[in-house]
Amino acid sequence: MEVGIILSEFNKIETKRLIIKKISEDDLEDFHEYAGNPLVGSKSLWKPHKNLQESKEILNGFLKDDEYLGIHHKNDKKLIGILGLHEDSSRKINSKLCRELGYGINYDYWNKGYMTEACLAILDWLFVHKNLEIITGTTSLENKSSQRVMEKIGMKKEGVIRYGWINYKGEIKDKFISSIKKDEYFN
User: Fold this and answer.
1) Please, what sign has the CA dihedral across residues 17, 121, 88, 24?
2) Half-sphere exposure of residue 103, counting CA atoms within 13 Å on the CB side?
3) What is the Cα–Cα distance from 99 to 6, expressed in whole angstroms?
4) What SS3 string covers the chain?
5) Which of 96, 94, 81, 136 is nearest to 5 (CA)?
6) Would you say 62 and 23 are in contact if contact means Cβ atoms under 8 Å apart?
7) For the chain, what is the largest distance between any 2 Cα atoms, rounded to a whole number of angstroms?
8) Which residue(s) pair with 12 in the sheet?
9) For the CA atoms of the chain, what is the radius of gyration?
10) Is the pTM of this model over 0.85?
């Protein structure tokens, strides 16, 4: 089961403060607002977008991949972040059983619980409706905020792969890995 097949059946999830739905071209300006901020990209190892055109090209790639969902604020419908569901390159098991969850959020919405709220909602959907067995998460070792989200949603630290990533500057970075299994989520 490819990720696109998983998300082809996805409509939307509403939480107390958020609407999680597929991203669209209409999200471009909001996407650029957060993806262009160097405080956001540098934590996630990707290069901050230099202009709207670069954000448009990346957003169009996201739309083709069909691996991404937008996190929209309920009050104003603004795109404040993105969730990505990717094949876990660390595990050589059937992709029907495992997905890697990635995420990014607008700096103005940091430390307010939005990402935890969005991740819990998508975990529930993946475990209940897609019957996955394990969801993983990775981030740079320096990204303590992302590690804290993983902890809050019940993921357990698996470890660190030393020199596991290369960032956009060409620097080799350690990669933090965590996961949550379905039985752990429901217990």
Assistant:
1) negative
2) 30
3) 10
4) CCHHHHHHCCCEEECCCEEEEECCHHHHHHHHHHHCCHHHHHHHCCCCCCCHHHHHHHHHHHHHHCCEEEEEECCCCCEEEEEEEECCCCCCCCCCCEEEEEEEECHHHCCCCHHHHHHHHHHHHHHHHCCCCEEEEEEECCCHHHHHHHHHCCCEEEEEEEEEEECCCCCEEEEEEEEEEHHHHHC
5) 96
6) yes
7) 45
8) 21
9) 16
10) yes
Residue whose token pair is 């290369």:
166
**Per-residue pLDDT in tens (0 to 9) along the chain, 187 residues:** 455 666 777 889 999 999 999 999 999 999 999 999 988 876 667 889 999 999 999 999 999 988 999 999 999 999 999 999 998 878 877 767 899 999 999 999 999 999 999 999 999 999 999 999 999 999 999 899 999 999 999 999 999 999 998 888 898 999 999 999 999 999 8
Q: Which amino acid is at 122?
A: I
Could you give the angle at the alpha carbon of 184 between the alpha carbons of 152 and 187, nearest 5°? 95
Find the length of the chain. Answer: 187
